[in-house]
Amino acid sequence: MVADNDIALGSPILLIHPLLAPISVAFAARMQANAARAVALGLAAQSAAQPPGLYSFDGDIGRLTITTPTYNTAVLAVNQRAVPYGGVELARLYDGAQRVVANVGGRPWASFGVLVRDSSAREVLFSQKPRTLPPPVQPLELLSSPRGTVRRAKSYPARPYGGPFETIVARGRVNSDEVAIETTHRFKLDWIETRWKVRPRKRARYTVDVLFPSWGKHARVEAVLVGGRRVTLAAEAVPRRKVSLRNVAYFYIAGEETGYVVVPAGRRPQAVAHILRPKPQSSAPRPGPTLALQLAGQRKFKQLALGVKIAPAADPAQAAAVARRLRGTIPAKPVRPRRPRPKR
User: Fold this and answer.
1) What is the pLDDT of residues 126-164, one digit of tens each?
2) Which domain holds residue 38?
3) How many domains does the chain have?
């Protein structure tokens, strides 16, 4: 397809009848045609520039997308039955080279979020559970953004809720008759900080876990203790172990493609790190072991809180450098993801 004025790229929308060609073939042909047209218009002679961090926000369904040179992620509070996942947590997490850091869109237990169970191990509430239809109240609010606070986004704004950013703060809430969960994300250009608050609505005993997923059956989960010793919590042919959060400097979750660090932020609760093993799902066909930080184990509480910072890291050495920066011990330049070498 050629543009009407014959001096610009054609439409990138794939308006191809399904009986004419498989969608993969049509997509490849369209991209090749766009690339050839761009070369003909002199795009190859133009100098390239590193794009800034960018965001886009759709308030009615609580969809927030973030992309930076270091990572890209999204929050999808309302999925409108288009996909099987969603909620107020990170729906997926990739690095700047588009390698899977944590997950590709899983559901519990192959997702981020807070899991609350009662004394019979019944799931009472999970923060990563999508709505199917937009609620009367905006499901995700922006507390800080280039457009300021956005609690009631306009349906058709003159200026879209999107563009370059330095800091985005988003908050979402989920609740049931028994428990309420508040999740607050702070997105920076090179890392993400998430804080959770869990409040019971009934005086009962609950087990509360905060989950951090991984990708691939060969994934590993390690806890690096304050003294520097490394404890493997999950790996092939390694028995599962537990460790107290009070003794941990940071966690390194290494997936099959790359990994990420989890650094506790702020006051640390009395929690225990352990491992959950999610089953394959349609939206997470290759889940690895999930790190679970158990804030309460079958006990009563008034409120629980946890904060962490996460950022991509390709290997243990890079993880140590990223963790030091996130802990604020040294002012270092952001560690950019290492792009894989092309195969020969």
Assistant:
1) 999 999 999 999 999 999 999 999 999 998 888 999 999
2) 18-47
3) 2
